[in-house]
Automatic annotation (TrEMBL):
Protein family membership: Belongs to the FAD-binding oxidoreductase/transferase type 4 family.
Top-level division of the source organism's lineage: Eukaryota
UniProt domain FAD-binding PCMH-type: residue ranges: 17-209
Keywords: FAD, Flavoprotein, Oxidoreductase
Protein known as: FAD-binding PCMH-type domain-containing protein
Catalytic activity field: (R)-2-hydroxyglutarate + A = 2-oxoglutarate + AH2
Requisite cofactors: FAD
Amino acid sequence: FGSVAELVQRSPSFSTLDSDDISFFKSILGEKNVVQDEDVLATANTDWMRKYKGSSKLLLQPRSTEEVSEILKYCNSRHLAVAPQGGNTGLVGGSVPVFDEDAREQSDWHLCALVNHSSFVMPLDLGAKGSCQIGGNVSTNAGGLRLVRYGSLHGNVLGLEAVLANGDVLDMLGTLRKDNTGYDLKHLFIGSEGSLGIVTKVSILTPPKLSSVNIAFLACKDYFSCQKLLQEAKRKLGEILSAFEFLDIEAMDLALNHLEGARNPLPASIHNFYVLIETTGSNESYDKEKLEAFLLSSMEGGLISDGVVAQDINQASSFWRIREGVPEALIKAGANYKYDLSLPVEKMYNLVEDMRARLGGLARVVAYGHLGDANLHLNVSAPKYDDKILAQIEPYVYEWTSKHRGSISAEHGLGLMKANKIFYSKSPKTVQLMTSIKNLLDPNGILNPYKVLPHSLNP
Ligand code: FAD
Ligand code: 2HG
Ligand code: ZN
């Protein structure tokens, strides 16, 4: 890996930044928000995994829609490419410049904490909270830990404002639950990864905060039991189920070995699979009774081999820490090949086993994810990056997913990493229409070039 510029060619249609450009940006944003400091640029040019590195010479920090609009209008007229960046926690190389595109950042936004202090909750929760930003979340259509309960951002985002490449501001900031007046264009911006416009405002449904939350950390002997347990949880916990996550033994081992202070909630023996189930409801005794009855019948039926229910908030966060900490543990363990797949639940783990057989002792295959949404996070971990390992994984992993009509990007997006792989999950005609939409909204192709659409089709 290293420089991403090795993967694609810089488009000759883009100009190079000059001193007049810098003066213009300073006149709009003020000195402070036009950043040329090398250390700050080095951070903005590098992604969370430290796998993709760009070479942008400029970071702009607009504070308002009007400033974003002025910047884009200017960049469009000058053919200066722009890489929109939020919290820079993306996992597909989407948020960092590939070459010298200007990076554009918006201010940090501790939204979850703010909403949680009221009597509502954010329908989206993910391990990157505290670092990621709502514009990035919407632009990636992030899924996260509670999608099984609240659904995707396509349902939860009620409206948004976006700035187009030419600086036009699209006001679609409705707050209505129902609105069928014509094409619902906000959906174009949810999950388009900064390639169609910059999201500057969002209105989002925030469900009421409920008082009774329970978390169980469970062990299962095999994958079939996890799968059956999910079916049972959907039937028996029904409306109170708020998360159903799984980790295999490799993911658990990594978390326990690499996360500071992590302790195994089930230390008595080693298990092949672990499942974290959360319930959220409004009636404590009713919810507890429901969860206990479900756990008891699942134990008796042999679906659960061991388990513990969190007794207080500290224990609950220690369970979540293990699950949410796996991406961090993977980074600490060395080189990391990441695949984020939607697959039929019953087939999902066959891929993991096939991958283990292919890789033999070359690398560790680590599986975990949002089982409740049929979303597998398949990670291959090795001491260092090695082309021999990559050749065993790709294109096999994509072909396998395509054969089972799965998605090669369940929730992280395509970014730079998978722009050229889109055909594994989308038909040529669909990609052609996507390209036409991109050309219509951003004819000069200045917004996040080299990402999302195949490089040959990027304008
Ligand atoms: P960035 O990384 O800055 O950008 C992501 C993409 O959005 C880029 O293409 C960028 O150009 C574009 N973008 C950013 N802001 C804007 C904007 N305002 N307008 C237009 N385009 C914009 N993802 C999940 O889906 N589920 C998870 O459970 C999850 N867990 C994670 C856990 C960890 C520890 C980490 C590191 C990442 C995780 N992610 C997860 C991935 C990542 O956090 C999400 O994709 C997140 O939504 C990215 O938000 P961000 O603000 O960091 O965006
Ligand atoms: C998660 O669910 C994130 O923890 C990251 O989506 C997944 O590291 C990954 O592969
Ligand atoms: Zn995830």
